[in-house]
Specification:
Blueprint: H1 6-23, E1 30-34, H2 36-48, E2 54-58, H3 66-73, H4 91-99, H5 110-126, E3 134-139, H6 147-157, E4 163-167, H7 180-193
Parallel strand pairs: 1-2, 2-3, 3-4
Helix pairs in contact: 1-2, 2-5, 3-5
Length: 203
């Protein structure tokens, strides 16, 4: 599928939320987005955060992504595969990425790169996320989505209930890093802080 507008992807996530609520009525909904999914999650929280218990953004593409700018400047988008070593200090994670038949290993499409840049700009202009608590997490040695540009974007969207944490030495796939247990504990603790007990059904 070729993504030409990420607002449409956000709309699709909204439809998925409605399906989840219909299947599990009364339960709180938590949104967790990683990398490009973190970008989508940030935009979703700006638009629909009031309906969510909380949001977790992991290594999100926000603020700016210099790789997109460089690729769009080229006359022809180069075929530059992601270096699997940038994903995690655990070599097995990179190997699993290389071996996964569902991973696209070819070049980006220009249309999708333009849509990525437009979504980042829209998030930057969208203002702080005030309707729901958001946790921003990032690996400090992330070479795929470098931490400083993402931190710049985070400063634009962090609301009053925002929290943040970065992990020294960690690369991009923090849920698959050598300190994954620490990361998951942080996520679970944040989510538990913002869950409410559903109202019991009428007798």
């Amino acid at each position: 599928m070729l993504v030409a507008d990420f607002e449409g992807v956000v709309d699709d996530v909204r439809r998925l939320e409605h399906v989840a609520r219909a299947d599990h009525p009364g339960l709180p909904v938590v949104l967790i987005g990683h990398s490009m999914g973190g970008m989508i999650g940030a935009r979703y929280a700006q638009r629909f955060g009031a309906d969510l218990a909380c949001v977790v953004l992991s290594g999100p593409v926000i603020g700016r992504w210099d790789a997109v700018t460089a690729l769009l400047a080229a006359d022809e988008i180069p075929d530059a595969p992601i270096d699997p070593a940038t994903l995690s200090r655990d070599p097995a994670v990179g190997q699993a990425y290389v071996d996964d038949p569902l991973v696209w290993h070819g070049p980006f499409k220009r249309t999708t790169l333009e849509a990525l840049r437009a979504c980042i700009d829209t998030i930057n202009a969208g203002g702080p996320i005030v309707a729901t608590p958001v946790l921003w997490l990032h690996g400090e040695e992330d070479q795929l989505v470098p931490i400083e540009p993402s931190r710049e974007g985070w400063a634009r969207i962090a609301g009053p209930a925002a929290r943040e944490k970065s992990y020294p030495g960690a690369r991009h796939e923090i849920f698959n890093e050598t300190n994954r247990a620490e990361v998951l504990d942080d996520v679970v603790a944040f989510v538990h802080d913002h869950l409410t007990t559903p109202e019991p059904p009428p007798a």
